[in-house]
Amino acid sequence: MKINKARKELIKDLVLVIVGGFIAFALAKLGFIDWLVSLVGNVVVSSFLAGIFFTSAFSIAPAAIALVHINGPTQVVALWGALGALCGDLILFYFIRDRFADHLLHSLRPSFTRHILTSLHLGFMKWLAPVLGALIIASPLPDELALTLMGISKTKLAILIPVAFVMNLIGILALLNFFAYL
């Protein structure tokens, strides 16, 4: 893929994320997300479904709003949301991670890309990439970047699963507790 085309695709991805955020905000203001959450009715199912969508850059905003609007105990919403987010992360890890990684890596100069890829397999960076990935998963940032880092650094699935669950749980708890005080 040519550098210019990859950069255009990366910009297109970023614009879609921003537009998704505005749409989620508008849907929340119009009461659509509250209506959708009440339609499902079950705290566990609502939390799990919102958790699945909490991982992707394109759906993180409406999923975060849905998680905040679910009426249930914070720990239950966070637990089931984190399990859903783990499922979403696994789907991303296997099927979607290459799209974002390709756009990102191909938008850089080939020599710089080679340098990044080789450094992620050596010493300090070999363990730093999964740690940065775990921190990104816990943050409100989309998980594609984290899963790309973990995929490029060859993180094993046996490590990814518990790390992704715990970090999603921390991230969702932080989100719920933050909005509980507003």
Q: Short summary of the structure?
A:
The chain has helices at residues 3-29, 32-40, 43-53, 60-69, 74-106, 110-119, 123-138, 143-152, 157-180. It is mainly α.
Question: What is the ordering of alpha helices and beta strands?
Answer: HHHHHHHHH
Gross morphology is globular
Radius of gyration, in angstroms, nearest whole number: 17 Å
- Given the structure, what is the number of helices? 9
Name the beta content range. Answer: under 5%
What report would you give on this structure?
- The longest helix is centred in the middle third of the chain and has 33 residues.
- The chain is mainly alpha-helical and 182 residues long.
- Helix 1 runs parallel beside helix 4, helix 3 packs parallel to helix 5 and helix 5 packs across helix 8.
- It has 9 helices and no strands.
- 36% of the residues are buried.
Which labels suit this protein?
182 residues, mainly alpha, 82% helix, globular
Task: Provide the fold topology.
Layout: H1 3-29, H2 32-40, H3 43-53, H4 60-69, H5 74-106, H6 110-119, H7 123-138, H8 143-152, H9 157-180
Helix pairs in contact: 1-4, 1-5, 2-4, 3-4, 3-5, 5-8, 5-9, 7-8, 7-9
